Amino acid sequence: MINILPLIKNETIKIIKKKRFYVILLILVVLVPMFTYAQMRSAEQTRGKFNGDWRLEVQQQITDNENSLSSDRVPDEWKKYRKIFVQQLQYYLEHDVNPHEPNGVTFTRQFMDNSIALFIPLLIMAIASDIVSGERTNGTIKMLLTRPVKRWKVLLSKLITLFMFTSLIIVSTFVIAYVISGAVFGYRGFDLPIFTGFLIKGSDVDMTAVHAIPQWKYLLMQGGLVWFVSLVVASLAFMVSVLVRSTAASIVVMMAALIAGTILTNMAASWNSAKYLFMVNLELTDYLSGSPAPIEGMNLAFSLTVLSVWAIAAIIISFLVFTKRDILN
Which residues fall within 8 angstroms of residue 162, CB to CB, at 6 or more apart? Predict the structure, then answer.
């Protein structure tokens, strides 16, 4: 392990010199204020409409969703989601907890929930997609492999460095979202009670395991799931970077897979085998909030297992191909 540390340091310097991590930070600094402003305007309109009474707002949401259940224009699959949503809102109303309380912590939680399946993976791709293919494109891989270092150590140093920057991206996203949104909504909200433990059974919600936890604890659980998903995406992007010679092709492959996942998540309810695709299992935080799984039979343990298998397979394939392929020609 000692003689791999210089390789990790070298890979870290190369990523920093490419300045892509700084670009990621810049993207976050530019986009988060836009999302914050949109959330602020939405909150202002809602407060004006319901005179600041959040209970009226939640009751109106319940009424609107219940009315849509009798409409023939709403697909049956959407009715299932809305029926579950109504039961959850009623639970919040009965326990006198505002699920839409505007504050920096709540904004950060919601931002991470909405970013886990596409936005954060796209940020990770900015670093992961060319970590190997980029070296082959500019020819530096030949110089690297002429050194008296085993190939697996070279690749392992790249993988460790990628995981380090992936973790840094997650932390940066949390911090930037909280700092910027907190300046608008306030930095309170860590002790706000959040309900978790909703068990979805068909179109009904089992409330027996529901319990309240402080939002800071929810954020820790959410952060762990986001981090796990990010490592899986990084591993898959890493494999594609090994398999594909072109950086552009590597990016296109991963983007196509991620975008296809967002489409399948909304359309794959009748295709049961789609639950074994990694893209359909990325939204792990939905299990915390009690959102229904896109396909019947999916749960947190199942999705964690599927993603783990994909990540392990991707890493094994990466090392097998990199150590056996004639990369110098």
Answer: 127, 128, 131, 234, 238
Q: For residues 214 and 193, is the Cβ–Cβ distance under 8 A? A: yes
Q: Which residue has the higher pLDDT, 92 or 239?
A: 239
Which of left, alpha, beta for 204 (phi over 0: left; psi -120 to 50: alpha)? beta
Q: Whole-model pTM? A: 0.85
> Which residue type does 298 have?
M
Residue 77: what pLDDT? Answer: 65
3-state secondary structure labels for all residues of 41-67: HHHHHHHHHCCCCHHHHHHHHHHHHHH
Residues 81-113 as b/e (b if ≥16 CB within 10 A, e otherwise) read ebbbbbbbbebbbeeebebebbbbbbbbbbbbb
First to last CA, the chain: 29
Q: Which of 227, 25, 22, 242 is nearest to 129 (CA)?
A: 242
Do residues 169 and 116 lie in contact, with contact meaning Cβ atoms separated by under 8 Å?
no
Report the SS3 class of residue 282.
Answer: coil
The predicted-structure confidence for 265-285, as pLDDT tens digits, reads as follows 666 666 778 788 898 899 899
- Helices (H), ranges, 186-246: 215-243
Give dist(CA 19, CA 21) in Å, integer.
Answer: 5
Q: Is 46 exposed, middle or buried (0-12, 13-18, 19+ CB in 10 A)?
A: middle
Burial track 221-234 (b if 16+ CB lie within 10 A, e otherwise): ebbebbbbbbbbbb
pLDDT of residue 303: 93
Cα 197 to Cα 166: distance, rounded to the nearest angstrom:
29
Q: How confident is the model at residue 28 (pLDDT cuts 50, 70, 90)?
A: very high
Residues 134, 131: Cα–Cα separation, whole Å: 6
- Confidence check: pLDDT of 12 > 80: yes
pLDDT digits (tens, 9 = 90+) for 126-166: 888 888 776 666 656 656 665 667 888 888 999 999 999 99
Residue 237 CB contacts under 8 Å (≥ 6 apart), including other chains: 124, 125, 128, 129, 250, 254
Query: Distance between CA 160 and CA 71 in Å, rounded?
Result: 53
Determine the pLDDT at residue 137: 60
